[in-house]
Design a protein that fits this description.
This protein is of the alpha+beta class. The protein is built from 10 helices and 11 strands. The strands form 3 sheets. The protein has a 6-stranded mixed β-sheet. The protein has a 3-stranded antiparallel β-sheet with strand order 1-3-2, sandwiched between helices. The longest helix is centred in the middle third of the chain and has 21 residues, at about 110-130.
Length: about 325
Amino acid sequence: MPYTHPVPAGVSTTGQHALNVLYQHRLVSTGQLHRLITPQNTTSEYLRRQLRSLRSDGLADCVNRRRHGQSELLWWLTEGGAEAVEATGLLPKRPYRMSRQAAAGPLQEHTLATVETGAAFVTHAARLGHECGPLDWTPEIAHYYRAEDRPGEELSLVPDAVLHYVHTEADRRTLLTFFIEVDRAQMTVGRLAQKLHAYAAYHAYAPQPATRAARAATAKPQLAWRSRYPLYPRVLLVLTGATSARLQSRINDLRSLAAADPRLPTAGIRAGITTLDELRDRGPFAPIVTPVLGPATPTDIWLAPATAPAATAA
């Protein structure tokens, strides 16, 4: 039966935060929830009690995951839990529902790696005095476009996440937006290169007015991405799931394929590659990002000097 109140009676503030995070990110481990929601606590025991309470209330459920000889619980919302969050109206409604089968299925590791990527930004934002919270990235937002090399097709670009980060320094606040692609060394490097090509095509896409008269009256159609973003998001590929040597080989191969793509060098997008370990251990503003194009010298998450004035986006 759907919940009729925004927050079921008896759910703590921490429990409410957990509900929102689980709704947004679908499947999250206890350890990830601890870092995202209760990092001020030295242990996760209080959070675990709140999660057990959510499970008793029928709002959340969990499955056990064994990895490297250790056991960990993975949490998701039940239908009732999702309805409770939707009743608050605080988060954009998401049609996706997690199930026990999906939680234990083949997408488990990729979902958790995407959460881990976001959690790395959150952890380092807190350390640096910047702003990035557990709800500041959203998984799998579709961006529709058409491309000259595939006429007649409506294409869909779906980043693993769109992440927003506010860099603060003195009185300057800069909004950074990222298209995040997480690669666990399971797809071919060629497929990764195709994704970069899609980002370039979306960057150039300007929807044409539906009628001939409207097309004649429109001097220059607006680029589709400008209706969503003040500046085109940086594209960040985060590699994991293999040895450092193998990940470096994938970076080198991807750069070679990108350099051979006739669209990318003139696309005007800022794209870089790093590893999840580097992002987690050193943070986004250390020199950990290898640009997709140009010199292979690692830089930080800016990828290039900001072109926007001391204002809102870069």
